[in-house]
Amino acid sequence: MSDxxxxxxxxxxxxxxxxxxxxxxxxxxxxxxKAPTDSARLSSFRIEAMDCPTEQTLIQNKLGKLEGxxxxxxxxxxxVLGVTHDLPSDAPIIKAIGSLGMQAEPFTAGQxxxxxxxxxxxxxxxxxxxxxxxxxxxxxxxxxxxxxxWVVALVALASILSGGxxxxxxxxxxxxxxNLNINALMSIAVTGAVLIGQWxxxxxxxxxxxxxxxxxxxxxxxxxxxxxxxxxxxPEQATVxxxxxxxxxxxxKAIALGARVRVRPGERVGLDGDxxxxxxxxxxxxxxxxxxxxxxxVGDKVFAGTINQAGELEYTVTAVADQSTLARIIHAVEQxxxxxxxxxxxxxxFSTIYTPAVFxxxxxxxxxxxxxxxxxxxxxxxxxxxxxxxACPCALxxxxxxxxxxxxxxxxxxxxxxxxxxxxxxxxxxxxxxxDKTGTITHGKPxxxxxxxxxxxxxxTARALAASLAARSDHPVSxxxxxxxxxxxxxxxAVDNFAALAGRGVRGDIDGRTYHLGNHRLVEDLGLCSPExxxxxxxxxxxxxxxxxxxxxxxxLALFAVADTVKDSSREAIRQLHGLGIKTLMLTGDNAHTAExxxxxxxxxxxxxxLLPEDKLKAIEELYAQGHRVGMVGDGINDAPALARSxxxxxxxxxxxxxxxxxxxxxxxxxDLRKIPAFIRLSRQTSSILKQNIALALVIKAxxxxxxxxGFATMWMAVxxxxxVSLLVVFNGLRLLHx
Length: 739
Hints:
47% of the residues lie in helices and 19% in strands. The longest helix is centred in the last third of the chain and has 35 residues, at 675-709.
């Protein structure tokens, strides 16, 4: 099998975090002014507080003004910032980030793995508990008139300061940097409530907002943990053979290429490698998504993170820890989390207009009615504050990242590696799937399918005679005949005067008698063809089989048919695609007879044979010209042009293949074609949930805005509405983790 190679169709920036707290999410790779110079260097920083798009936007705006900074690389999942710059030191960068209330800790590439996916430091619980108790106390005292107003104000102030000081700090930083994020809006709303004397409500609003943020962060961590959980699959240690032949446990990261590693039953494989001793079954589900264990013996590949079940194996390492298939999967998924799906790009653009518009509307609500209509200032200022809270774009902004991350994680667990949110979302648009034949629909390895003796006198010896000649050739068809004879325990004969006949077959002497083993053309060249034989050959060739004949000087003795067999999963995969309303087309370089025969076997709608790589490309372009959205499935370099032109390119059996994982839009980690309909179903579910979340967020906000203008809404009700819809879209998106 050859690697699938095609150029990525587009590059997308990161903007995923675990919180909705931004009105604008910046791309993960940001060029500041000119492109990086030759003298530029990359400095990396761990920033604990940088885990949502709010901080990303603030940092981008701040460092964008710093002379010498040329490029920013955001990794919100791991809270890591890369800065490409030509400054004499990192000090100005650290100082600039510090002015935003965040601490940047420099670290080297060697430290990166140890810091990846670390949880944020746990915060003490008592300030939030105190905030809740005092907020409730302020409400009770105010309602029962149990104490003077100054006592209510004091108790409420204690609640606001104990639970909302962090929000105020973030809000102040955002306002200083002219960024209207949720922290700024909430700070303004609570401060406004205090200024008009609504102390109990201000306290309750701040407490509820803090609780909502906490619940939201914990909920979204589920999506993050689904990805980081991949990193727990590979063990930290493995048993390695030393120079003196003894075995010693070593850290996986310290094991070099070519080392001999032993894995016992029940242990996880530590590194990618080739088996050199032993036989066992391996659970490869963490890598390929295969439901059943796979037998492994000498010469087979094993992958880091898979589980050895039955026997002991020894393997030589073929990839160090940070280059293993599992490591490449983790890297690819982390990169994919940062690519913005079309819906998310729409939401980002919408939010940049929506939030300032809401702020201006709130000012208008507070001022216009009292100034020009004689309304009460208190009532309309209060409505404006409620409007600020309820109109927060939290649910809208968060609806896409959590859904995309959940979908990517769900796909990875199925052995489907999606290289970006854009492919996950756009997969639902496909209405045509084109497929290569060899290695995609079929196994890519010819096997003998038919044996027909033509001369009764040699019926019991013809197989051994043919195998004796076939074993001397390296042609795939010859190898299939030789292997079939081995399976049938046929003893081979010594062959003298062996000769290969280019394009026809082979010749050799066995026990002093000359035999030929070759194709239809060889029979005709020898003048041994007949109408009856022609009929037999045509019938087999029409089935897409290659026919080889054994002949002596008198005529044909037996014929053998060889074919590339269809995978058991291919028929079911095509059936599922048709069930999804998707049409199928097979594109192959094999002859038209073979193409039609294989297509008929698996139920493919159309088949085209005798195609060169450029012909496959033209076939894809023809479908586009007819208005179709096409996905292309292949596993060979000759599929590269068609894969690159298609809406989504699927690389088959990508496990252990660097090029396929690095370049495919979607990499199927094993050779099971049923993963294509599984991907399309997941894409449709993702698209549906994205639409549900956006509709839910907008409809609920529209309803509550109407209630606010009617004067029936309160600030704490607004927080509940905002928190409720945010959690609804989060949990709705997390449903994909269970698909």
